[in-house]
């Protein structure tokens, strides 16, 4: 089953899965950033947002975005006193194509860091938050793929009552639009003394630390273990009186533009590594990028690439999907589990051009997706997007490879 949200709404899709007692994976992708319902602040230089919903026998097992981030889970863990950075290595036993967030939650349960009740509360909140975002979506496409049930399962949720409740919340949310336009707006107290006098001591002590202009309404709901609407309703009277104000959603495009400007002003030659078992592709990538002032290196064997990438420390990785011994999806997921590559742009290269392939790339942690065959302009536009322009008039620097790396690459060329 697949189609567009102009043909059928998300509520109807979920009801069909419930009536048919379906088991599998439901993917949604927004068409673009022009949809007014997309209020979440994400980097618009990357994919339009997408989500996945795992269902088993017509019930929802898990729902979340496909960005592979753990920020949402970290917010929920805070209320149980579990702060600090999350170690992605503990989810290595979970399939890289399942959600890292779900895998991490299960790892915490298995290690008895969380109780089952705490795990169920977190899971329920995450599913509700995702459905609130999905049921607010105006346009996009969807695919449902029959598959074995996501395992293990914690607490499957019935679709009918859940969707009805969230639909009602969305209708009530729209009534607050005069003062609250986005869940990503950040409440701030302009006058601490006046606010302190206007609320109870318990309310002030609970809310004041979060109303600092740094925490969004969405994150506040996670920390307080309450749904988005109830938190917004609680803030609304204070917004009407001017006791609380809302900062605007952070403009991530400006941050990206600054990053690209820093890259442009840097004297360091951007280093790009291409992992592809096709000799023609590797030669073309090196020729195009070297000619434009980049430092390009290609590797044919994905298993050898794992070790070489840690030595080369590239600014950008181009990775083929269909490779022997190790798929590009798996290589990407392994790199994302390492602190060294958690922020490095990884672009998947593939001859496939399907919606499911894009989703799978994102679930593995890919930053972007380039379909083969591609021309020089397409490749250069993508590379410049993430590491800035090269300098074709600057003499190309020697590749800073030590003897061990040179030997590995020589073996790699012989294998190809």
**Residue-averaged pLDDT:** 80
What would you report as the Rg, rounded to the nearest angstrom? 24 Å
In DSSP terms (H or I, runs of 4 or more residues), the helix count works out at 16
Number of domains: 3
| Strand arrangement in the largest pleated sheet | 1-5-2-3-4-6
Strand content: 5-15%
Percentage of helical residues?
40-55%
Provide a short characterization of the protein structure.
With 416 residues, this protein is an alpha/beta fold. The protein is 44% helix and 15% strand.
Describe the structure.
Residues 33-37, 39-45, 250-266 and 395-416 have low confidence and may be disordered. Helix content is 44%, strand content 15%. It has three domains: 2-174, no CATH class; 186-247, no CATH class; 255-415, Response regulator (Rossmann fold). Helix 8 (217-224) packs across helix 9 (228-241). It is built from 16 helices and 13 strands.
Record keyword descriptors for this entry.
globular; six-stranded antiparallel β-sheet; alpha/beta; single chain; 416 residues; five-stranded parallel β-sheet; 15% strand; disordered C terminus
Question: How are the elements arranged and paired?
Answer:
Blueprint: E1 2-4, H1 10-19, E2 24-29, E3 50-56, E4 59-65, H2 71-78, H3 100-110, H4 116-135, E5 141-146, E6 157-158, H5 159-174, E7 186-188, H6 192-198, H7 201-207, H8 217-224, H9 228-241, E8 245-247, H10 252-265, E9 271-275, H11 279-290, E10 295-299, H12 302-312, E11 316-320, H13 328-336, E12 346-350, H14 355-363, E13 368-371, H15 376-387, H16 403-415
Parallel strand pairs: 9-10, 9-11, 11-12, 12-13
Antiparallel strand pairs: 1-5, 2-3, 2-5, 3-4, 4-6, 7-8
Helix pairs in contact: 4-5, 8-9
